[in-house]
Amino acid sequence: MEYGMYYLELVTPYESILRRMNKVLASGRTKYQEYFIFDTGAFGKVLVLDKDVQSTERDEYIYHETLVHPVMLAHPRPRSVFVVGGGEGATLREVLKHPTVERVVMCDIDDELVEMARKYLPEWHQGSFDDARAQVVHADARAWLEAHPETYDVVIVDLNDPVGEDNPARMLYTVEFYELVKRRLNPGGLMAMQAGMILLTHHRMHPVVHHTVKQVFRYTRSYHNYIPGFMLNFGFIVASDAVDVAGLSEGTVEARILERGLQLKHLDAAYLEAMFVLPKDLKEAIASEQMVSRDAAPFWLTEEGEARQQA
Amino acid sequence: MEYGMYYLELVTPYESILRRMNKVLASGRTKYQEYFIFDTGAFGKVLVLDKDVQSTERDEYIYHETLVHPVMLAHPRPRSVFVVGGGEGATLREVLKHPTVERVVMCDIDDELVEMARKYLPEWHQGSFDDARAQVVHADARAWLEAHPETYDVVIVDLNDPVGEDNPARMLYTVEFYELVKRRLNPGGLMAMQAGMILLTHHRMHPVVHHTVKQVFRYTRSYHNYIPGFMLNFGFIVASDAVDVAGLSEGTVEARILERGLQLKHLDAAYLEAMFVLPKDLKEAIASEQMVSRDAAPFWLTEEGEARQQA
Amino acid sequence: MEYGMYYLELVTPYESILRRMNKVLASGRTKYQEYFIFDTGAFGKVLVLDKDVQSTERDEYIYHETLVHPVMLAHPRPRSVFVVGGGEGATLREVLKHPTVERVVMCDIDDELVEMARKYLPEWHQGSFDDARAQVVHADARAWLEAHPETYDVVIVDLNDPVGEDNPARMLYTVEFYELVKRRLNPGGLMAMQAGMILLTHHRMHPVVHHTVKQVFRYTRSYHNYIPGFMLNFGFIVASDAVDVAGLSEGTVEARILERGLQLKHLDAAYLEAMFVLPKDLKEAIASEQMVSRDAAPFWLTEEGEARQQA
Amino acid sequence: MEYGMYYLELVTPYESILRRMNKVLASGRTKYQEYFIFDTGAFGKVLVLDKDVQSTERDEYIYHETLVHPVMLAHPRPRSVFVVGGGEGATLREVLKHPTVERVVMCDIDDELVEMARKYLPEWHQGSFDDARAQVVHADARAWLEAHPETYDVVIVDLNDPVGEDNPARMLYTVEFYELVKRRLNPGGLMAMQAGMILLTHHRMHPVVHHTVKQVFRYTRSYHNYIPGFMLNFGFIVASDAVDVAGLSEGTVEARILERGLQLKHLDAAYLEAMFVLPKDLKEAIASEQMVSRDAAPFWLTEEGEARQQA
């Protein structure tokens, strides 16, 4: 390891990553979080919020294709989409690739972060903030959804993990929040979400979120993918009362990709399907999970990845 | 990050992992390599050879199930097995779980390392070194195979990546070596191997190895899995002239697991199959690879993951 | 920085030192503290207690000559010495070099640590634990001194800094403790002590200790020296009601060194004298210090080096 | 150690310092060197060139008072001064504090660095670049001195250590360079220089430089001081054919400080004198040094601090 500038990321209390920074493009603190944007040798620009790498220039397509397209392709004709979080604009970008889309509302509480992304991360948003179909709202997503009765074909939730007892994000991981999302779905609608790192089967984030979402939706399906820039395997969920994403045939997915003219770099129909197949130990961890996160006792994660619930 | 003892692992020239060590159980240098065995908070005991984490107590089952069972299950009745490397004894352990196995020869050049494993890593080998069906040989695997005309149903190759121009392992990644392995296979036999980290599609290790193996075997199939203790997605290959592992039905695999009474923790038939489905960018990298490693010009990897070939 | 094992020392909340470890000889926890003994490239063996490097094989002679000889040479004929702390045995070793010494009581609370030092650190103690003049006692030094009315020509205090609100060492940094030490001094007796790192003039450790000692003794003199293995400049104090160490002539010191046949590696009379000359900023920090540590309100240090006092 | 941005400084091949950066103000590469300017919690702004911390906002006064005032005070009336290096402008600032000074030529090869200092380091130069008495020249100092026969009362040399076989600075550490400096001194003139870290007595930098300078000047005196921001003890040299700085009385120094109205923060006459008193082991290392650096065989340092000479 040569002399120079590094970013220290505390992945667990036992493992940390030191990332060499060629150049620091911006760093500071918005009203809501600390941010760091820097340039690296292998992953290009890296965006860090608080303590975690959010995405990297070189591999953000993997993360964003993984988050967005399974749910969008599970819907036969998604016209309206609501995005919770997603400040860099890349979720928006992927959503807008679907020509069926007529309207996307992206709700990220942090206006300063979105400004930062506009300025420093053009490779992410690629102008999607200025797409006529997109509306960007700066508000608490839960409050905004409660106040606005508009409904959507797809809701995509891209939030930080609720690490720490006082993490404000924990109110966006409860049964009541998912019930609100469900009320904002059109008939036939689906929700997708980022659902935590899957470091070892003992990490509780993904099982608890899965089990909580399952209280609300008829079909709750987990899938996973490796995100190189995080050095981690990440979990995702698609949930719906109408559509079981696991029941979609490879043929249907392939047909929709063609029909919509999607140019994907990481996903194709076969790999999309394979992501929904989980290893045995993870399936067992999900199946045996008992914790349900509710407003009265929202769950949060310790640094070790253990789940806690306020009594 | 608290004060204390850490292991610094240089994953790439740009990213390093600092792992907190609770206790150092052993460290030193054998004739062939440096080793470190230490205890950690999240992964239990960790074995490092030279600069890379080889396996961890808590998740070695993931690595070893992934390496061993796809090839063993692809064979209808594997009786004899040859293991190249695999000093910790866990590959041996997984092979011996198949009741069809009558004889396993494990060839690891480093006798001191195997002694170390016997003493410090009982959770890995679990006594398999003493199984009556196992024979442990300390020799250069290539020389040994050349000198011994005995043939096997399955050959499993578990070696370090050939990083660095002078890496002796590079002579075990050439067409000529795979041809030798093929000559040591019984009719219907298969080879499996660990085939490098898949950090980003620009990392050349896996495509070059795949392309090289393909020169020798009729069926060459890549698969991949996330190894939490490495924080990396790893590539593997199964190759054979007789059996196309990709053509095995989930039902056949499931029947063989039951038939052999295999108690697996990470794999089941569905997940085993899903591991062979690769993302689009990786498939393209493999398809467009041109480099073939030969004795006359063995390939090696730079620290950046670029492939070089001696002229 | 190469791959391998490192010790992370948190010197301040802003600066940390990573020390490459060739070999870990011992690590664990006694009843009182965590310890690490490891071998390094430049400093040989290193002993760490809790989070701070205590001494290194290669440069411990600098630390121990600096701590011991100024006070021993300030006394015309030191016969009896009491050492508070000093578990490695090197303080004892330096004291015993003075042929005038007839009896040394070394009181270190941590018997396990002393056992460890006997076993792993022979270069430090060099057999002094077995010198007929030495008595090693394992007890709380304050309680022991209170219980035993025996008096000494010299008392040497070698303790950790009282970092943290609950640090038990803080009761050995109060006016009442120094008054106890004074009652245990023979007429003409002196006390010497390690008195904290002098990293920047804003670090309060040394000024507060100096000002506290000054409440008790007629002559309180600070001196300082650079300890390479710590990468820090350290402060020390000699205090007495009878002798002003600053008034000793170089000639007297030189004569005593010769007379006692001391073989010193780092100190001579001129350098010993020069260590008592302080830079202007440090002198001003000492002169303007107001805090006095008392049993009713013992002072402690924050990680930043700020001094706090319980109300 | 918290998550965030750090600077990794490789002090020796065995010890590194990780410094937490609050903010990176500038980083890049001039024609001659890499630079990093960042803000830290304890030391304020920090300037790094290539791999070493050059000075910090909070303690640069210690370094620059130590480098400049001993030589300036050793001269009864320094009117003209030549500074080799010193890009930050703080050496210039300290020189200009002496009201006797009529002209200072500062020669730093790196014009981009000086521009950077003007912009980002006003606390260092405090406008001295614009002082009417100062002339800033961007050239190789040796070539410039050869080409310009002007002479000075004082020459101050502030260069990086010649680490590495190809280090261009090594031609500014030879007998021939010091002879050139001597030819550029007025009668009664003196040279001062920064002369390397004194980490352990086995570090050869300071002894070799001292021994080389001694070949040229009648009086060569070493002194040392601890620089907190470097976490290192540094060596310096004053040399002259006319004045033995060690022979100056404290009274003379004090009178000159008063006479010139110098406002010093770290030095006073007594401490200035004490810095010239060296510990015994360092004196012995200097006395036994045999290596002389000459143009025909300039010395250079290994990373370990060993001295090498081209044959």
UniProtKB/TrEMBL annotation, chains A, B, C, D:
| Record key words, sorted | Polyamine biosynthesis, Spermidine biosynthesis, Transferase
User: Locate the PABS domain: which residues?
Assistant: 4-241
Keyword match Transferase: yes
TM helices/strands, residue ranges: none
GO MF entries: spermidine synthase activity; thermospermine synthase activity
SUPFAM superfamilies documented for this protein: S-adenosyl-L-methionine-dependent methyltransferases
According to its UniProt record, in which pathway does this protein act? Amine and polyamine biosynthesis; spermidine biosynthesis; spermidine from putrescine: step 1/1
Binding-site list for S-methyl-5'-thioadenosine: 33, 108, 140-141, 168
Quick one: which residues bind spermidine?
64, 88
What the entry lists under InterPro entries is as follows:
PABS, SAM-dependent_MTases_sf, Spermi_synthase, Spermidine_synt_N, Spermidine_synt_N_sf
Function in brief: Catalyzes the irreversible transfer of a propylamine group from the amino donor S-adenosylmethioninamine (decarboxy-AdoMet) to putrescine (1,4-diaminobutane) to yield spermidine.
| NCBIfam families, per database record | MFS_SpdSyn, PRK00811.1
Assembly with partners or alone: Homodimer or homotetramer.
Name of protein: Polyamine aminopropyltransferase
Q: Which organism is it from?
A: Meiothermus luteus
Starting at the broadest rank, the lineage of the source organism is: Bacteria, Thermotogati, Deinococcota, Deinococci, Thermales
